[in-house]
Design goal:
Bound molecules: S-adenosylmethionine
Helix content: 40-55%
Number of domains: 2
Strand content: 5-15%
Radius of gyration: 28 Å
CATH class of the largest domain: Alpha Beta
Structural class: alpha/beta
CATH architecture of the largest domain: 3-Layer(aba) Sandwich
CATH superfamily of the largest domain: Vaccinia Virus protein VP39
Order of helices and strands: HHHHEHEHEHHEHHHHHHHEHHEEHE
Largest sheet: 8 strands, mixed
Strand order of the largest sheet: 3-2-1-4-5-8-7-6
Distance between the termini: 94 Å
Number of helices: 18
Shape: globular
CATH topology of the largest domain: Rossmann fold
Length: 423
């Protein structure tokens, strides 16, 4: 039997040394091929990112608004600069009667006041917002837009979620839904007033409580999710709502932080994100991009934004009068995808470019032809439409801000405007 002593004879030592060197050589070549495959996958990732960037740039070139940005008239708001204001006015132009109008996200009333001023024929205006601070500002601004003594406009503002649009409009006037609304606007996302107030917890760059509620009366805050929701739910939110590739490592760090008492301020969350973001990732300031995605994910979850949006788009479309328009400004790809898909679903086009579903064909075709004639004549902003049975999507591609607007108001960079018109 071979013993430890017999293995230490010079011959066996030579044998074991040569097998060690063979094994070492094997390990070195494995390490080489590992580093080669890491470099290849890094290169592949970089190429994919470059390709994604090229597609985004091309898409942006195609969708940019060619309308001039009117800074003198609308850009000096003390509270919030309305995004794509000229483009929204084009959707509801003074040449088209707008007797009943609803602003689902009134904010500081930048869009609302300009639209009210442009439509002296307006009879009913309804403005909604879940944020009492915004609504106070909006009320003052709307009142001053109502200073025409000959105006018979009845203006109503509600501290309410737009998901209740149907019941709110019935409360205003039981016949309102029968007649229908001529124009509805949704300008999603946050107002500058919300982002600039650290106490609301929306800002990545200012320390404040982990709140993130649009509606200060709502019960769920961002810190409840971070400190007590199941681990897998935290991960799902970061992955699905933030589209954050480092979600698993962040999920683990967030759950670990619970052992030390949890996270209670945006500063603590940012520190955790910094510690989880490798320096090599997206440059030295990479953590800001990660933090932006994490904050977006939490905000969406706290305010149940995506489900609310989808349900409300159907409700808003139901509220429209024949020929009425629903315009939606979204600020990130998840919102925009919902707006795009829901509009397609409403007009019954499957998958985007397919043919409309055809029943009552002749009658419908006449209506659709009439819409096309109306629009072709005087609405230069309508480039390509998608026609369906119940409505027409007036923006086959969304409208994005002009370069000039983007330079003056960086917050509008990701904005996309989509419009649907009821048959
Ligand atoms: C981007 S701002 C609107 C700015 C406004 N268009 C203006 O010109 O001043 C979005 C507003 O929508 C409100 N909001 C967000 N979700 C809402 C919801 N589900 N129901 C009602 N208001 C909501 C926010 O509180 C915020 O004030």
């Amino acid at each position: 039997m071979a013993t430890a002593a017999s293995l230490s004879t010079p011959a066996s030592r030579i044998f074991s040394l040569s097998s060690l060197s063979l094994r070492l050589r094997g390990l070195t070549s494995a390490a080489h091929s590992l580093s080669r495959s890491t470099t290849t996958s890094k290169k592949k990732k970089q190429q994919q990112q470059k390709q994604k960037h090229r597609v985004a740039v091309k898409e942006k070139r195609r969708t940019r608004s060619d309308r001039e940005f009117d800074i003198n008239r609308y850009g000096d708001s003390a509270f919030h600069i309305p995004v794509l204001l000229g483009e929204v006015i084009d959707v509801f132009p003074p040449s088209k009667p707008l007797r009943r109008f609803v602003d689902c996200t009134v904010g500081a009333a930048g869009h609302s006041s300009a639209i009210i001023e442009g439509h002296p024929e307006m009879q009913v205006y309804v403005g909604l917002d879940v944020d009492p601070v915004a609504l106070d500002k909006a009320r003052a601004r709307i009142n001053s837009a109502l200073n025409d003594p000959s105006s018979t406009l009845k203006a109503y503002t509600f501290l309410e979620n737009f998901r209740y649009i149907k019941s709110l409009l019935t409360d205003v006037d039981e016949t309102l839904l029968d007649t229908g609304i001529d124009g509805i606007l949704m300008d999603l996302g946050m107002s500058s007033m919300q982002v600039n107030d650290p106490q609301r917890g929306f800002s990545v760059l200012a320390n404040g409580p982990l709140d993130m509620r649009m509606d200060p009366q709502a019960s769920l805050k961002a810190e409840d999710i971070l400190n007590s929701w199941p681990e897998t739910e935290v991960g799902r939110i970061l992955r699905d709502y933030g589209e954050e590739s480092n979600w698993y490592s962040l999920q683990n760090k967030i759950v670990k932080a619970r052992l030390q008492g949890g996270l209670h301020s945006t500063g603590e969350l940012v520190d955790l994100i910094k510690s989880a973001t490798p320096l090599s990732r997206e440059g030295r300031q990479g953590w800001i991009k990660t933090a932006t995605r994490v904050f977006q994910a939490l905000r969406i979850a706290v305010n149940d934004e995506l489900k609310t949006l989808e349900d409300s788009l159907y409700s808003c479309f139901d509220c429209l009068a024949p020929g009425g328009r629903l315009a939606v400004i979204s600020f990130h790809s998840l919102e925009d995808r919902i707006v795009k898909q829901t509009f397609l679903d409403i007009i019954n086009i499957k998958g985007g470019d397919g043919d409309a579903y055809m029943i009552e064909e002749r009658e419908r075709k006449q209506d659709l032809r009439k819409i096309r004639i109306d629009i072709d004549k005087d609405e230069m902003w309508v480039k390509q439409m998608l026609q369906g049975l119940r409505g027409t999507i007036l923006t086959k591609r969304p409208i994005t801000p002009s370069e000039e607007e983007e330079k003056l108001n960086t917050r509008c960079r990701s904005a996309k405007l989509r419009v649907i018109q009821k048959v």
